[in-house]
User: Which sequence fits this backbone?
């Protein structure tokens, strides 16, 4: 282990947190839950949105991806801004803006306006997440207490990702689709009131200048790469998509070069030379890709293939949600005695077994099988992310905790984008290839049925019973044809993260 890692992982015991700090943790969990819920809350609302707004297949993916894409692109910039102007102040600005724009999203009359609202939500969401994790660093200076606080935070974030479909199912069952966005108002109003009373302000005592060029480069890195991946997955190879990925790669190289040359960089790239830091970030990324990808296809399978209601579908995921929370807390005492690499690798091996269960059953997976698969997946990811997030905080300088926290959040959000872009678009491609449309269909009906499974369901509702049943049978079979392939990729992603933990964290002791 390097001297830098050893020094940061061996922090001395300092003042222990009291009741005020633990109450503050509860308040800081509000935006954490909200932002993570927002990543997946649309999963169960997609059929209703598809029916109401009639987006294209690409438009449907952008409704899901617009928010986490902007969020991922701005997290590092907002983390650095919080270090400069104050993390508590940035949190309050983000909470106010997020609640306001959520109201506009709830009543968006078209797919384009909903995508625009999701883009703006990403800006304010980027203010929330780095602030919450970095404020934990300044609130819990004793490492043992901080490890537990981070466990609660990580469990809440992971739980929120799984809670999104459940909450969405309940709301869609009883209210219009826009209700999923109105969640932000009752969650963030208490935060705006209580944070000034419970959370002390913290900032970098010697911040560098706010670097607008680096912010632009970070956005120019992520947006074209993810867009290019989406286009390649949906429409196949094109010079435009390849050019977009190349543009993102070039912008990323320029961003790294700029950070290395600046005396006070927006993001200290040298942190990635610490294996514990870089390894934990990549583990988070791969874990979230697998989690969000699983939720993307399972939510549609439960509703549109098996035929469950949104609420029933959400409840199928409830045991996995509970397992994710429990695993994140139970792993804390284990991490005191067992090397982090072994803890993370063991958890991710368990997660891989959940995906493997879906591979074995393929498109014939019953609701009970998916319930068990998600319990396995959630247990492993809940344990792994608690340990990896604590390592990210422990290996970064306290003064730069905002930027370091933003790196962790960027991994989360980029994982959410890629989970939908890669695994989601693979299912879309498989669906289009396998779907057989009856010859009696008009061109418009064929086009809408081929866009998404939700589109086929909408078309079927206007058809005679024989044609409707023929279309639905073909559409459900076509959708499930890609499930086994997607789940197989999920197995490889989770196992790759486990191997990475064993290699990158092999020198990090318990």
Assistant:
């Amino acid at each position: 282990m390097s001297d830098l890692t050893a020094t940061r992982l061996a922090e001395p015991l300092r003042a222990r947190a009291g009741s005020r700090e633990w109450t503050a943790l509860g308040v800081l969990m509000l935006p954490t839950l909200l932002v993570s819920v927002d990543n997946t809350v649309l999963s169960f609302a997609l059929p209703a949105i598809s029916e109401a707004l009639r987006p294209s297949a690409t438009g449907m993916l952008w409704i899901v991806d617009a928010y986490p894409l902007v969020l991922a692109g701005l997290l590092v910039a907002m983390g650095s801004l919080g270090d400069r102007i104050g993390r508590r102040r940035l949190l309050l600005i983000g909470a106010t803006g997020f609640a306001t724009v959520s109201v506009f999203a709830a009543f968006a009359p078209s797919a384009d306006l909903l995508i625009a609202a999701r883009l703006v939500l990403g800006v304010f969401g980027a203010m929330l997440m780095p602030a919450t994790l970095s404020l934990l660093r300044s609130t819990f200076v004793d490492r043992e207490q901080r490890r537990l606080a981070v466990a609660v935070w990580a469990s809440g974030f992971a739980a929120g990702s799984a809670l999104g479909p459940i909450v969405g199912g309940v709301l869609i069952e009883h209210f219009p689709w826009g209700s999923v966005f109105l969640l932000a108002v009752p969650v963030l109003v208490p935060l705006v009131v209580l944070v000034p009373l419970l959370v002390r302000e913290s900032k970098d005592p010697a911040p560098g200048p706010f670097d607008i060029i680096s912010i632009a480069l970070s956005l120019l890195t992520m947006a074209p790469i993810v867009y290019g991946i989406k286009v390649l997955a949906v429409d196949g190879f094109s010079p435009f998509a390849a050019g977009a990925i190349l543009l993102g790669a070039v912008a990323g190289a320029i961003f790294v070069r700029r950070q290395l040359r600046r005396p006070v960089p927006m993001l200290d790239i040298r942190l990635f030379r610490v294996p514990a830091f870089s390894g934990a970030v990549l583990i988070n990324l791969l874990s979230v890709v697998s989690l969000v990808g699983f939720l993307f296809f399972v939510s549609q399978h439960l509703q549109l293939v098996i035929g469950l209601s949104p609420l029933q579908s959400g409840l199928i995921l409830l045991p996995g949600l509970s397992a994710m929370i429990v695993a994140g807390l139970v792993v804390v005492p284990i991490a005191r005695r067992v090397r982090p690499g072994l803890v993370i690798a063991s958890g991710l091996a368990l997660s891989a077994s959940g995906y493997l269960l879906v591979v074995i059953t393929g498109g014939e997976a019953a609701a009970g099988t998916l319930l068990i698969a998600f319990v396995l997946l959630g247990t492993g990811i809940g344990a792994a992310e608690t340990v990896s997030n604590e390592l990210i905080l422990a290996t970064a300088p306290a003064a730069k905790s905002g930027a370091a926290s933003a790196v962790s959040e960027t991994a989360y959000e980029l994982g959410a984008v890629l989970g939908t872009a890669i695994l989601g678009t693979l299912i879309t491609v498989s669906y289009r290839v396998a779907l057989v449309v009856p010859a009696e269909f008009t061109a418009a009906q064929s086009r809408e049925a081929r866009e998404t499974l939700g589109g086929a369901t909408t078309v079927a509702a206007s058809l005679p019973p024989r044609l409707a049943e023929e279309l639905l049978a073909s559409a459900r079979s076509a959708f499930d044809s890609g499930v086994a392939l997607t789940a197989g990729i999920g197995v490889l992603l989770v196992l790759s993260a486990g191997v990475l933990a064993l290699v990158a964290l092999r020198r990090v002791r318990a």
Notes: The domain at 18-199+266-504 is CATH 1.20.1250.20 (Growth Hormone; Chain: A;). The mean pLDDT is 80. Residues 401-434 form the longest helix (34 residues).
